[in-house]
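G., the chain you wanted modeled:
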Amino acid sequence: MPPAPPRPAAGPSAPVTPGRIGLYVLLLVAGVLVAVAGTLVQAAWFPGGLLLALAAAAGLFHGGATATGTLAGAMIPGAGWLVAVFLLLSQVRPEGDFLFGAGTSSYLFLAGGLAVAVICATVAQRRAVGVPHGRVGG
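Predicted structure as tokens:
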């Protein structure tokens, strides 16, 4: 009996269904919530809070890509995270204080979150296209 052909993975051109749209909306909202929580936690318990906030973002981005099997599964919560962080960054309270301090932790949170989003989107893109794991040319 010949082996069964592999099932096609949900790639970049996965069909748009109402369930998939609903999942993308939930991922967008989760990206905003993780950004708000990470903003508060990273400043409270340095360096543990920073690592916790970045781990939560990585878990969301990778989980979104795994759940949907598409590149958009990592990009949509990343976009929600990015928009929320930059909106929180631009908010000035009446006292003149920012929600983000001017310390190293805030900059590491911004740069680390962007790096995590790019890494998770790249891994999701390689998996969706079907790039094999292992050495190249060996």
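Residues 18-129 form one domain.

Shout if anything looks off.
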